[in-house]
Here is the input.
Amino acid sequence: MLDMFFDPKAIAIIGASADSSKLGYQVLANLVSSGFPGAIYPVNPSADEILGLKVYKSVLDTPGPIDMVVIMIPARAVVGVLRECGEKGVKGAVIITAGFREAGPEGVAREKELLAVAAEYGIRIIGPNCLGIIDTFVPMNVSFAAGTPKSGSIAFMSQSGALCTAILDYALAETIGFSHFVSLGNKSDVDEVTLLEAWGDDDRTNVIIAYIEGLRDGAEFISQARKTAGNMPIIAVKSGRTAMGSRAVSSHTGSLAGADAAYSAGFNQAGVIRAETVEELFDFSTAFAYQPLLKGKRIAIVTNAGGPGVMATDALELNGLALASLSAETQAYLESQLPAAASAHNPVDVLGDARSDRYMMALEAVLADENVDGVLVIVTPQTSTEIVETARGVVDVCSRASKPILGCWMGKQEAMAGIDILAKNRVPNYHFPERAVNAFGAMWTYRQFLNRPDAVTESFEIDREAVAKVFEQARKEGRTGIGDAEAQDILKAYGITTPKSDVFATPDEAVAFCKEIGYPVVIKIASPDILHKSDVGGIIVGVSNEAEVREAFDTLIARAKQYVPNATIWGAQVQEMVANAREVIIGMNRDPQFGPLVMFGLGGIYVEVLRDVAFRVAPMTRLQAEEMVKEIRSYKLLAGVRGQAPADLDAIVDTLLRVSQMVNDWPEIAEMDINPLLVRDKGAGAVAVDMRLILTPA
Here is the structure.
């Protein structure tokens, strides 16, 4: 698909220079020194020879076909040169030159012109404003990075060129190898989705890692990433975590759903493992690249120090992993081989005087135990510790093992000789136990993704005309806000249970309705201009007789006129009161990249204070909805504690799925909240007693 970039036979360097201080020289020198086996054509109208290579005045003067060009000339000249490349039949261009979209309005126009020429000639573009690309299997380095990485099975992409140089330097020091290394720059054409598709079936790549600043199309990313993640793990670190959407929001969901929540939800649904830092990005990627994948979550620990073993045990629980329960046979064997003061239980403490033979005996024993899915070997440098010999022993065991083994040679100076041996033999090592366990946690997360059933979304029969009628009326009146009195019809159209309810203009009408449905009731102000009724004292609950109905009716009208003098007031909404239920909230905010972002959490007035919520991108599957409910910290309150009956979790999941379909069906819904959804005990259902909705401006 992108062979012009990752398997080129001939490359032209446009803007090649004989001046070693110029990028044109540095990129050409990198290409030559990388050992590229194909034809190299430097292009510069003012030179004859550079680095022993004949220089051509124009790409049109080169003698043979060219698969890819690398462009490093002033931005104003790039479009014209790209047109010449099109006439030459070039199909790939890496544009290192800056001065395009990132440079303001003139640059934006220049980039649009660039893309128009590329489309005309069928040229794919990486960049502009990028560092370049590296492929270690071709081999080929057409970047201005200081050094070429070793060959490996990790493919890396980044929007930041500067970060690329730092990461490459780190990888060289840590002997981490790459298959592909791509700086995306402005992503005018080739972006993360393009590379995920291209690398998804690349037999030279075992894991894909990415530094992401932003995505063009979140839904497209989820779709492609899910496909690619079925073949190999994808690990991403996302910058800009605290950035919030720029437009004002008026719903609970809108105020809670920042850009970061959308990325976390999207990554979760796509099977992308999120790293919190660049350090974690490589902690995780080396575990995936160098070791077999975890089949289960049971981890054994072999250590020569008790404290680090306890630290690792704590980290296991925090990562959703388990300390493996060693079989009786394994424990008996360890007891027969270890000193009396050692521990044959997991963590297996071989004591501070353990030499390499004792370590290897313990490692082989726990690795053979059927109750163990992976092993962490912790080595602290003590006077008797054989740092190098133990590392060599672990390397030997790893070469024969079908289960992942991670090393934790703690320290730097004394431990470094062993760490170097592990690194050179593709055994991941972490300086501290928590980092190693986090890597196991990432492996377990990916294993769970692979074990998920195929993502199939359910579809419910709906009354589309009823929803359209509500929206049309609001548009007709020039409104974007839809309050509970109108929203009840939308909920019913999607099969979501609502209480008996209606809006009345006079107290007499309200009293008559109460006699029909029975007491107690809830009475709310009914106004298209007052969506957050509790803010103006617009809700009175537990109204239990005719006199209280009349008093509540008059009170609500008076409060509305006091707090929102210019509001249109339809009257009061009388609603059946739902008792003995727990409050949850279901909402949606439309993210600019990912689209409808559905929220779930405990409801009522405290949701923004507690912020105990979970997010998913719609549409979602039943499994994703179930995971969403279990994700909140207060899930145990819904599952039932201290003799309390569990809430109807199935009803919550059903409502989530119906809301997911609703916000996917109607792109004009910008925000919405069902707050609260009152959930009865298991089997008794749930009732949406209040909903507000915001439409996008017409």
Q: What stands out?
A: The CA atoms of residues 612 and 633 lie 6 Å apart. The chain is about 40% helix and 20% strand. Residues 433-451 form the longest helix (19 residues).
